[in-house]
Design goal:
The protein is α+β, with helices and mostly antiparallel strands and about 400 residues long. Strands 1-2-3-5-4 form a 5-stranded mixed sheet, covered by helices on one side. The two termini are about 65 Å apart.
């Protein structure tokens, strides 16, 4: 697309028109700063003041889009105005061009113009006073200061305030963006945590229901079917209770989103008993001391999910659960019989392994799961003192 040059602001057109009309009115009324009879006017034509007035007014529409160009042309026009009877409006418009050149110009121009006008103010006052040996020569410097240095300094101050406000606005925007990113990350992390909790709380019960309901449907034995249905009912009630507890926590809003009775490693025995009731042959070997609460919950959930996976996928045989604490770490190991090619007894999505891996990573631990030597091994290690896991 072709480059479109910036267009002058409509307010600048109004300034130009108002200045030109005001200058023409003062000229028509014969109001001039210098009289031809004073001997200071080199161009004494009656209409001469209108030329620099018109040039300076024509520079006003450029005060924002081409501030340096407008200032240079305006300076030439002001110089021409000094050899005519003059117009006070030309001087006022020029002060606006100096102000705009500092406010809207480049950073280099904004730094140089106040410095240059300040030097001209000093030189314009000191040199005439020294040459004429008359203190009234200082008035020339005062005039230069009023016409050039004062508007340049004002533009510098306003520009600094504008830049500071813009920087504050950008910082506020960045802060809001970072806050939104933190909020989104917190929401994502909370959803992931609730997904893990929901999976760990419900998957075990639903897996048992699926397996025993399949047995009840496939075996033509009233006693076996009755026992299977009893297990189905027991797991249904337990799963429903866990769901109600979780929903109650979510409806309450805020606070701790863990279940009301956070499981501990002391509950592993009851967890193993429940697995045995579902038909698993499980042994528990727990040897550990005092464990931090987050590690305790993670270890419990990993054992729970491992037993659920064993119920769904393991071959016939013994499942062994072992917990050991050594070298500043708690190690959890669950092994179950594994035969390649066996189809699972209940469907699974693989979310359990992902959840266990996430739990270990959140606490700085390590996690591994896979087959080897005819068994499927799940191993997790959690540091207990902030160091690397064993």
């Amino acid at each position: 697309m072709p480059f479109a040059p910036p267009r002058p602001h409509r307010d600048d057109w109004r300034i130009a028109a108002g200045g030109l009309l005001g200058g023409v009115l003062l000229w028509a009324l014969g109001m001039h700063p210098r009289a031809s009879s004073a001997g200071l006017v080199l161009w004494g034509a009656p209409w001469a003041p209108l030329v620099p007035l018109a040039v300076t007014a024509a520079c006003e529409p450029l005060r924002r889009v081409r501030p340096r160009t407008a200032l240079l042309i305006g300076t030439a026009a002001l110089t021409l105005d000094t050899v005519t009877e003059g117009s006070i409006v030309t001087v006022v418009l020029y002060t606006d061009l100096v102000y705009a050149a500092v406010l809207y110009g480049t950073p280099a121009s904004a730094r140089r113009i106040p410095w240059i006008t300040g030097m001209l103010t000093v030189v314009g006052g000191v040199v005439p006073a020294a040459l004429w040996r008359d203190p009234q020569g200082l008035l020339i410097g005062v005039g230069v200061g009023v016409v050039a240095f004062a508007p340049a300094s004002t533009g510098w101050v306003v520009r600094n305030h504008r830049d500071a406000a813009e920087a504050a606005r950008l910082r506020a925007g960045q802060t809001a963006l970072l806050a939104e990113m933190d909020r989104a990350q917190a929401v994502t992390a909370e959803r992931a945590r609730m997904a893990r909790e929901l999976h760990d709380l419900i998957a075990n019960h639903l897996s048992a229901i699926a397996i025993h309901s399949t047995a009840a449907l496939s075996l033509d034995d009233p006693a076996t079917s009755k026992n299977a249905l009893a297990v189905v009912r027991e797991n249904s009630v337990a799963g429903l209770e866990e769901m109600r507890r979780l929903i109650g926590i979510l409806r309450a809003g805020g606070g701790d989103l863990e279940p009301a009775a956070t499981p501990t490693l002391d509950g592993l025995a009851a967890l193993v008993e429940g697995a045995r009731a579902n038909g698993l042959d499980v042994t528990l070997d727990a040897g550990h001391g005092e464990v931090p609460a987050p590690v305790e919950l993670a270890a419990y959930r990993i054992v729970q999910e491992s037993l659920t996976n064993a119920l769904k996928h393991a071959a016939r045989g013994r499942v062994h659960v072992a917990l050991r604490q050594h070298d500043g770490a708690l190690e959890v190991r669950v092994t179950s019989p594994f035969r390649p090619g066996d189809s699972p007894r209940a469907p699974g999505s693989g979310a359990g392994l992902a959840g266990m891996r996430e739990r270990a990573a959140l606490l700085g631990g390590v996690f591994a799961a896979g087959p080897g030597g005819g068994v499927w091994t799940v191993r997790a290690a959690f540091p207990l003192n902030g160091g690397d896991p064993a």
